[in-house]
Amino acid sequence: MESGNQVGDYVVVGWTINTVPRLEARLPLNLLNRHILIVGATGTGKSYTASRIAWRVSLKGIPVIILDWHGEYGDLVAEGVRLNPFENPVEFLSTSDPRSDVEVISDVLGLTPPQEYLLWRIISEKGSKLESVESLARALEAYYDDASWVRETRLSLHRKLKILASNPYARLFNSNSRLPVDAAEPGKPVIVDLSLIRNVNVRRIYGTMLLARLVNMNYGLRKRYLILVEEAQNYLGRENPVGFLARMMGEIRKNNIGFCVITQSPSLIVDQVLVNTNTKIIHSVKSNMDLEVVSRSLFLDQETARILPYMDVGEALLFNPSLKKPVLIRVE
Ligand SMILES: Nc1ncnc2c1ncn2[C@@H]1O[C@H](COP(=O)(O)OP(=O)(O)OP(=O)(O)O)[C@@H](O)[C@H]1O
């Protein structure tokens, strides 16, 4: 299916504004695995821009998966394949590799070191008897307390898992699941509608688990695809970033996955994202903190920085290493 391999192949994001004649604003496909950042205040055109990129990249035969936090991409990419997370469970425990599973679960749930250790003990003791989140929650409830820290840790870990093991959320996690990347076709990005998961914390956990499984599956295979992460502050926020995702942004050689990270507020996102995204598309930014972060990370001169709050919807500064300085474009 992959055809976007030719050197110099690219997709068009829009057109330059301040040049005569106007020129194509291009996104080279060989930069995809060096990641894209799209930022801008509410309503400035981030999702529209991301949807154009998703569709055009997918037309090149590169599979695209959209983690659709608000459920808006069904309208933006009418050709996309919409997936309901409840009908597409993600693997929570894969007893074939318990060590890396514990790391993933720990990252996803934000476990403390004692919680992670206890989880490891239980999984290595019970092994294949734990095929679901419910069975893990039950095993935790019944686990013997051989020290006082075990009891406290067990109870706090159980609290974290309880909602995942409850109805209807337990259906989101299953040991016999397939990854949605198989559903992608040329011109048809896969849209995982996360908004169907009402509990925001569970939504974040499902999204992160899905990302973890996609990334892990791709080690060794090195298949090329693009993942759009909407409302990225939920996964890569400064307060509680998911460790493996932040690390992934810097590990371009080990994996061939490109991330397109989308957020309203670059000041809420971990620095790794700003440092490790090669292509930046900056729509209008209004808050002083975000203006400062954008200006600093792109080394903007004062004149360019001054226009940031006043750009129209659909206008953006495009920056990548092949350009000497950011270019003002209109996304089309
Ligand atoms: N390049 C464009 N050309 C034409 N219309 C656009 C363009 N970009 C955005 N729009 C329109 O502007 C509106 C807001 O766009 P969009 O939803 O993409 O903004 P957003 O920054 O993602 O907002 P939010 O943060 O609230 O999700 C939509 O109606 C969209 O169709």
Automatic annotation (TrEMBL):
Classification via InterPro entries: HerA-like (IPR008571), HerA_central (IPR002789), P-loop_NTPase (IPR027417)
Segments forming domain Helicase HerA central: 21-211
Range of residues in the leader sequence: none
Catalyzed reactions: ATP + H2O = ADP + phosphate + H(+); Couples ATP hydrolysis with the unwinding of duplex DNA by translocating in the 3'-5' direction
GO MF terms, alphabetically ordered: 3'-5' DNA helicase activity; 5'-3' DNA helicase activity
PANTHER family membership: HELICASE MJ1565-RELATED
Similarity-based family: Belongs to the HerA family.
Name of the protein described by the UniProt record: DUF853 family protein
Annotated organism of origin: Thermosphaera chiliense
